[in-house]
Amino acid sequence: MLTLVYVFNFIDRQLIVILQESIKKELNLSDTQLGMLSGFTFAIFYVTLGIPIARIADKTNRKNTVAISLAIWSAMTALSGIARNFIQLLFARIGVGVGEAGGSPPAHAMISDYFPPEKRSTALSFYSTGIYFGVLIGFLMGGYLNQHLGWRTAFFIVGIPGIVFSILFFASVKEPKRGTTDLNAGPSADQSLGIVLKKLYSTNTFVYLALATGLHVFCIYGLLNWAPSFLIRLHGMKNSELGALLGPIFGLGGAIGSFGGGFVTDHFGKKDKRLYLKIPAYAIILSIVFAAGTLFLQNTTVSIICLGCCAAFQSMYLGPSIAVAHSLVPASMRSLTSAVLFFVLNLVGLGLGPLVVGIISDQLAPALGNESLRWAMSIIIVIGALSTILFFISSKKLVADLKRNS
What we know:
Layout: H1 2-27, H2 31-59, H3 62-79, H4 86-100, H5 104-114, H6 117-148, H7 151-172, H8 193-202, H9 204-224, H10 227-235, H11 239-268, H12 275-296, H13 300-314, H14 318-327, H15 334-368, H16 371-377, H17 379-405
Helix pairs in contact: 1-2, 1-3, 1-4, 1-6, 1-7, 2-4, 2-15, 3-4, 3-5, 3-7, 5-15, 6-7, 6-11, 6-14, 9-14, 9-15, 9-17, 11-12, 11-13, 12-13, 12-17, 15-16
């Protein structure tokens, strides 16, 4: 049920990506404005409110927090369809960000209470497949609805089912006891926000991990959010073709990579905990190679194959990263720990990735025309290399921090 909530989360979050060329044409928007709608504006409210909502979830019923959040972001997705200008659509996207702020951190904490440490990376990775099934459904439905009914109707049709599902979720899901799967867990003491932040900041593994994931997610959204426009502008594809193509590429490829990342790290990490972070680093290196192929190989078929491989390797990081973060803190801090991780991850990644690519594309457009987007997106190759270095540094700190926090 939590994974299905995450599916709704990413259907509503990424729907605008498959619709953005139609929205740009009707509302006469720039690439910078598209980057704000699909990235920065959403992210700034998502990450800012994520911490106080996670704090509430750590002290109250997490299941209720998730259900209410789902209802809010689904309603705001539906309202996006009535926007008549950039400002109105901007406020609707802010509403989606506000709602989604209460989704993942409480869900992460619940999953860590359902599964013991040696299975958490796999469980959290299974949950994270919701990202990619959400992208799959959002792209398929968005592409079809955009073609036949228009982008406004697409927002409305996609948003309403989430409101219904929030009621089902509230009625059927049980709240797990905090810390029930932890070995040698002591009493779950309430911790202030300051204490949690101080502990996380003093833990070297977490600091480097947060920065590494933030830079990596910059690459993910720099590629994901601009892939439809890239294929339209530089490979001559039609808007009507994109949903059916990109849905399976990002959806199935990402889901396989996400679950595979958790399964592989749980398997090999039993003997060497550092592999929980080294394996994602190796996967990112491979994703950089395929990202370069996507952007610079001229054959459309080969470029698309590289895009699918890149998506699969990019997605291997999240479950292991959350599992490591949760292993560094007691159960009473886990929602807030996820929120802090997601604050950095989404502020840097989701907030800046699409926006920076859009700004660079606009600046290069007078000289390069459509080629400006290709070169703007190539920034993800450099950022990906920096992310890999930080993952390796974090892995070197992990064993010592686990001992210190045991």
